[in-house]
Amino acid sequence: MSDPDKSRHVTIMIADGRKQWRVTGPLEQELAAHRCQTATTEKQTLDAALEQLSSHSTIDVVIVNLLYPAENDGPPNQEPLGLAVVNAARDRERAVGNGKRTTLVVALRQPSTAYPDLDREARDAGADHVLEWSDLGPRSRYGGLKELAKWIHDELTRNDLIAPLPELSRDDEPGILTALSDIGEANVSLLITDLAATVAEVKSARLTYVTPGASGAHVLRAELTLADDTLRTWLLKFAKDAAELKTELINSQNVAGAYTTQLVVEYLPYGPASHGGWHAIAMVFASGAKTMRTWLCETSATDHVSDVFHQLFLDGGLATLYRNATRPAKEQRHGNHPVPAVEGLMLPPHRRLRVRTAIAELEGLMRESRAVELTVAPDIVSTIEGFVRSGEIAGRAVDHRHGVLEVVPQHADLHGGNILVLMARHPRPCVIDLAAYGRQHWALDVARLVVDIVMHCLDPAPESHFWDRWSVWRAAVARTSLFEPAADDPDNPAAIEALRWVAAHKDDLLPLLTDVKQWEWHVAVAEQLLRYACRHRLSTPKRLLGLVAAYDQLHLAQSALPNVPSSF
Ligand SMILES: Nc1ncnc2c1ncn2[C@@H]1O[C@H](COP(=O)(O)OP(=O)(O)O)[C@@H](O)[C@H]1O
Ligand SMILES: [Mg+2]
Question: Dihedral through CA 561, CA 563, CA 565, CA 568, nearest 10?
């Protein structure tokens, strides 16, 4: 990992023609706070500075004053002679010829009306950072020498000129190698330092790979050794796009207090930290935890299902907020109008296209005797297409008269990969991944979890790749959606127990459900099933289940639709 020979020793040359050496001592002190030992040489004349640059000695950082006092009296009384030092520093680098940065150049200037383009000229000559002398004052907007020291430290680390701190270690596992080569080891180090800044100083971090979810972020587990030798284990999420991480962090702060404290994983409040185009957030790593998807595939979970689901939803769990309904309104020409319930249950446009692709991929199997051979195949396709296209429910158009959209605060990505079960004598659930948290149709959290259990926990691989259990899965979805207990299944006791628990707790989990809204629940389940039909990571039989069970749900929804006065 980090090069053991590479030290944290920094050599600085300051070239200033004004004999004002206020920088050296304080800058060295600030760099010491980043655990760098600094040796600084000060060159008062231009020649001395240029001579030093032409020698073979190592110079990690050049700090150069751009405007030197003019040799002749009279205006202008300053000349941009420092540009020669910038050029010399870059020439030196080019002479090495490997294209690597060996010296950082910081150019400083006084405000000058005589040289309005000096910033640009300095950058063109190769300065990495151009500041005004006044920026170095402790109360400047820039942040003074403290900020400059941080910049120097971070750039030296990123350019591999000093060994990174915290020191990273890892094994040769492909996931971690990919993540580190994407993000860059120096960036990982700097991001960890920044995330830890308000908590503790981190000496070293041992990294392991964690399989990410659908977000595409890199997820790593980091065992940290702090300066006082105590250990912490964090989960780090790295992404190129800060927005989603930021939302996740803000949501984690917003939900704190809404549920029992232990239900949501604890996030580090600071972040996202940003370095070199990457962003990161951190949370406490739940050691010894399994995802609910994994857990429900184990027979030993069966006896604890009821207890874990109770903690997840009831008594300060997620269902606490499922009654807090609001009705979003949409502005139209004649004032505000309620939104039809069906609009909260339709797939977003990009998913509609994916469903169409899934139908094209799977349709043939519906007629295939070696698969499921359904006589109603054409009806399945047209029913799903009608719903996806216009929200039509098995041939019937619905609008606000059939129901008005009510939304409640939900996790909004409640699948078994986003629920951890902490293993103990009494296992305990913990919710992660709050990026989507917010108000949505009241049935969606529960619909998503039910469908996720069927897709991932009923006959996991290899059985999920065969067709002989297909009708059992289809029946389990149908029965659970009607709040009837799913049939006994000795191969999947924990998953069945979970589905039965949901069916038995309909009043707690779906407190807004009434007879006239029953159809909305079935449509919510259908919408979730269609999403899973598009997932190539699922087996083909499970994907086809997504389509056919969605068709079943749309029919159940249609027969539950309330009668409304016919429109004209
Ligand atoms: N705090 C945590 N402790 C232990 N494992 C975690 C933690 N957070 C996430 N994980 C693991 O990392 C996986 C991906 O995390 P998640 O936050 O869901 O990322 P994504 O946004 O990519 O879905 C989870 O399924 C889980 O296995
Ligand atoms: Mg996730």
Answer: 40
